[in-house]
Amino acid sequence: MLEMFGRKYRINPQTLRVEQAKLPVKQRILAGVIIGLFIAGTAVGMRVIYDQHAKSPRLSHYEKKNMELREAYRHLSLDLLEDEELLAEFRRRDDRLYRSLFGMDPIPSSIREAGTGGAVMYSALHSISNPDMVIDVFDRVDKVLMKARIQSSSFEYLEEAARHNQQLLACKPQIQPISPADPYWLTSTFGYRTDPFTMMRRLHHGIDLAGPYGLNIHATGEGVVKIAEHSRWGYGNEVFIDHGFGYTSRYAHLQDLMVKPGDKVKRGQVIGTLGSSGRSTGPHLHYEITHYGRALDPMHFYFEELTPEEYNLISSRAAVE
């Protein structure tokens, strides 16, 4: 048996030739198995090394999407911050300005900061990777929506109060019943006085404004005419207007009546002329205001700063309407 270059040779006794020696079958099989395992192990090792140091297209795609989502959440968080600051400004204006204009109390913090979300509501999000940022955004969105709904309800209530206040301002008697451009003067004030007929002290429920016959008498606020007739109680020809909101006004001792019961009148509208009908000592207007049946001093309802031009503008607008 000869060995050269790591190989074994022998002389064939039949042919007397030198031939390469062959391993037994078992040894050849064992050698094949060992070689196969070596190749397989090498392949697995190379795959592991590749997976650890090289990204698959699918993995790269998912990582890219994950980065895009995180960037989107970051921008959403910034937008939420702006919304939260805007809501906070609405809250300050609502409590300190808008509600105070109508005599309303601020909305309590316990209502504005109403609880939302919670561990149970966001429990499904805990299964995702790094859920803290997502849960924080969801929680802030819920709180912004809740605060926005509360603020919207407050604005609706303020709008209703503004409409009510606008109607009140239009209906409440707030101007003198005779234009400042016309010649008239105050002859009797509100309160106790000596009755010119009985000479006894009694309460005078209005004011008396004297002037020449035929001066236009104007409604001092919007309302509905309830009485427009000759009174049996000494008022002579009178007009009685219900302004709503508990306010009424009476215009007595008129010469002419220019409205009838059921008419809707505007502030400044001419409803009659000055006269001396009924229990009267001379041409004058007896003017009364009541609020829920309680007599009030009409002088407290005058806009003294109205010029004749402004008063006539109000009257002309009422005539057009």
List keywords for this structure.
Glucose Permease (Domain IIA), 41% helix, alpha+beta, single chain, 3 domains, 10-stranded antiparallel β-sheet, 321 residues, disordered N terminus
Give the strand tally.
15
Architecture of the largest domain in CATH?
Distorted Sandwich
Radius of gyration: 49 Å
Q: If you average the pLDDT, what whole number results? A: 81
Main structural class: alpha+beta
Q: Give me the CATH fold name of the largest domain.
A: Glucose Permease (Domain IIA)
Counting DSSP H or I runs of 4 or more residues, the number of helices is 5
Based on CA inertia axes, which overall geometry fits? rod-shaped
What percent of residues are in strands? 15-25%
User: What is the fourth-level CATH superfamily of the largest domain?
Assistant: Glucose Permease (Domain IIA)
Q: Your description of this structure?
A:
Strands 4, 7, 8, 9, 10, 11, 12, 13, 14 and 15 form a ten-stranded antiparallel sheet that branches. A three-stranded antiparallel sheet has the order 1-2-3, with no helix packed on it. It folds into three domains: 2-53; 66-171; 185-320, Glucose Permease (Domain IIA), CATH 2.70.70. Helix content is 41%, strand content 24%. It is built from five helices and 15 strands. The protein has helices at residues 25-53, 57-101, 109-112, 132-171, 308-320, and strands spanning 2-4, 7-11, 18-20, 185-188, 191-194, 201-204, 206-210, 216-218, 223-230, 237-244, 247-257, 264-265, 270-274, 284-291, 294-296. Strand 9 and strand 10 form a beta hairpin. It is of the alpha+beta class and 321 residues long. The relative contact order is 0.09.
